[in-house]
Amino acid sequence: MTIDQNIHRQPLLSVKNLSVTFTIDDGRFTAAEDICMDIGRGESVGLVGESGCGKSVTALSLTRLVPSPPGSIESGSVVFDGSEIMTMDTAELRKIRGNAISMIFQEPLSALSPLHRIGRQLVEAVLLHRQISKKKAWRFAEQWLKKVGIPDAEERMYSYPYQLSGGMQQRVMIAMALMLEPALIIADEPTTALDVTTQAQIFELLQRMKKNFTSLLLITHDMGVIWETCERVIVMYASRIVETGSREEIFEHPAHPYTIGLLEAIPRLSKGRQRLKDIPGQVPSPFNYPPGCHFQERCPYAFDRCRREAPPLYDCGGGQKAACFLLDKAKQ
Amino acid sequence: MNLDKKYDESQSLLSVNDLKTWFPVKRGFFSRQQDYIRAVDGVSLELFSGETLGLVGESGCGKTTLGRTLLGLEPVTSGEIYFKNFLLNHAGRKQMNRLRQEMQVIFQDPLSSLNPRMSVMDIVTEGLVQFKRIEGSKEDHARRLIKEVGLSGDAIYRYPHEFSGGQRQRINIARAISLRPEFIICDEAVSALDVSIQAQVINLLISLQEQHQLSYLFISHDLSVVSNIADRVAVMYLGQIFEKGKTADIIHAPLHPYTRALIAAVPVPGKERQDKFAEVKGEAPSTATPPVGCRFHPRCPEAMPVCRETPPPLRRFEDREVRCHLY
Ligand SMILES: Nc1ncnc2c1ncn2[C@@H]1O[C@H](COP(=O)(O)OP(=O)(O)OP(=O)(O)O)[C@@H](O)[C@H]1O
Ligand SMILES: Nc1ncnc2c1ncn2[C@@H]1O[C@H](COP(=O)(O)OP(=O)(O)OP(=O)(O)O)[C@@H](O)[C@H]1O
Ligand code: SF4
Ligand SMILES: [Mg+2]
Ligand SMILES: [Mg+2]
């Protein structure tokens, strides 16, 4: 009992002041700015936010996978299980990737080789980190295909990625990430192409892994999935974290105007064609982030100060924090 | 409001008759036995001008294959496809070329469907250039299209890899609407977008539809999304249509046990889901050797003896069609 409690006390992953920039022909922009987050052992954290706000870039930089150039991790610290990832040598880093920390990438086709049967790709991934025979690895991989709900797994081992449906490719990726039982799973939109039945199956698998203190950073725009899977939620907008809190805090009393708008845009079961509520306006281009709050142009409450200063994360009570000056005024 | 007829039932745009698309596969490595994956296995449907038909169903049930077959990207195994009363199965290349301008597609995986070496400007105006439909400057066209999908104008000089997943999908949509087609297949077109952009894109698709009398086949695994854009919904399972009807009927009074389970399983934030789906989980069935009788019977909570033996036909039931022995 006491051991468990200790395990819970220190976060498995601790990110401090992480900033990532990209330099392309048109110049340089910041894709993730001053990101701070902790993920506890066995904890599931959801990362949500506008398309292009820097979720994938943040996720990739946790294991230094941001393509460089054009990307560059400008500053920050990422401590995983007591070791600093930012200064780790590549050999050590390679051991961690795919083994202690595994990633499910946003676009499965970009992570699977089109030239090789999926069985071979899975087996190679197993053999990279486990000393077992090829035959055993094959059986092992096959069983994982079954676990992620792929029918006819024995035969599917011989399929090329293009012969699988979008959701099947995604599940191959998931099998690859889960089969080595990592301590931390970073899942970037793992279920965008999956229907509710298949989704339920995958999340059940994740729940089971959680019992062994596997931690999860889940990036998804599917708020229903966040609600069902995560204890804590981080909301990003235009390269910055704008709000964090427990799932109840975020869903029941969101504090940041962006989070409020985001929750109102969730599509509900409806009776037919009907316009949805959205957040008016467009995300600013990363080259033209305005000084001050990045949400100011779309925010119904914006006032002078929002155009001058960048709001820090204000405490809203409990563990909830939001980067909005409305919360500062409330205190005074 | 929602119940108003927004489309014209006298004008059939697309009509599909008992369509089959099978893929030959080898079982195991050494086997010589010829098997087929019956990805699409006897689908009939109709799409009216100005209408949106939603297509939902489990991963691997054949939705994408159906869409690709309609576009002539997969060979038809059997059955007929009529587009504007024109039999597509036997269309020549010239005719297909003309029809291509009227049929567009937005696919699931944005990265693999965008040429990495082309700038966004070239991508979104490619069709316009190919069919000589550019008036004025290419830049203006590109800028207008890219703004229509909610990206900033300076995006047109950049390349696909410089964008986020969701942004790339918007580029894809800009390309698909560039030729102002009559029919667009949206295959998980908004699945990669966050909900606020998703709402904007759906609203955009609805506006374009109303302005240009567009028809959509809207493929998605997300019933909430589908229910907000589709006039009618078809539910697919293992290559076949299981239920088809008006959106309101399907969502609020689903008949087929599979449809009922699907709707019960939609996760809603703020509400604990009752695990109604437990009954239907079971093992995912094989597409190469689908269960005999009703294809759903091994997972169906209401299966009767007859379901294990006789495949139910797609029957008319009141205002809709259902493939189930219960009706
Ligand atoms: N390889 C790259 N080169 C240049 N810019 C990039 C690259 N990868 C990402 N970016 C830019 O960085 C910003 C953040 O991108 P990121 O992929 O993290 O977004 P995201 O939050 O994951 O969005 P989505 O929900 O659409 O996947 C975007 O403006 C994107 O265009
Ligand atoms: N080129 C191909 N060769 C062999 N089999 C294929 C091919 N394309 C698709 N299939 C198979 O056909 C079946 C239906 O696939 P399809 O991509 O149509 O499913 P889907 O309903 O779109 O699923 P998802 O929701 O996961 O995208 C699957 O079993 C798939 O493996
Ligand atoms: S800081 Fe100002 S602009 Fe930003 S969200 Fe709050 S009120 Fe709106
Ligand atoms: Mg992303
Ligand atoms: Mg598909």
Structure description:
With 332 residues, chain A is of the alpha/beta class. Chain A contains 14 helices and twelve strands. Chain A has helices at 2-9, 55-61, 90-96, 108-111, 118-129, 134-147, 153-156, 166-178, 196-210, 223-229, 247-252, 257-264, 304-308, 325-331; strands at 13-24, 27-39, 44-49, 71-80, 83-84, 101-104, 184-188, 215-219, 232-237, 240-246, 314-315, 321-322. An eight-stranded mixed sheet of chain A has the order 6-7-8-3-9-10-12-11, sandwiched between helices. Chain A has a four-stranded antiparallel sheet with strand order 2-1-4-5, with helices on one face. In chain A, strand 4 and strand 5 (83-84) form a beta hairpin. In chain A, helix 6 (134-147) packs across helix 8. Chain A is globular and about 65 Å long. In chain B, 31% of the residues lie in helices and 25% in strands. Chain B has eleven helices and twelve strands. In chain B, the strands form two sheets. Chain B has an eight-stranded mixed sheet with strand order 6-7-8-3-9-10-12-11, sandwiched between helices. Chain B has a four-stranded antiparallel sheet with strand order 2-1-4-5, with helices on one face. In chain B, helix 4 runs parallel beside helix 6 (165-177). With 327 residues, chain B is an alpha/beta fold. Chain B has a domain at 12-102 and 181-268 and 276-293: P-loop containing nucleotide triphosphate hydrolases (Rossmann fold, 3-Layer(aba) Sandwich), CATH 3.40.50.300. At the A-B interface, helix 4, helix 8, helix 9, helix 10 and helix 12 of A face strand 1, strand 3, helix 3, helix 6 and helix 7 of B. The structure holds adenosine-5'-triphosphate (2 copies), iron/sulfur cluster and magnesium ion (2 copies). Residues 256-257, 293, 295-296, 299, 301-302, 306, 311, 324-326 of chain A line the site of iron/sulfur cluster.
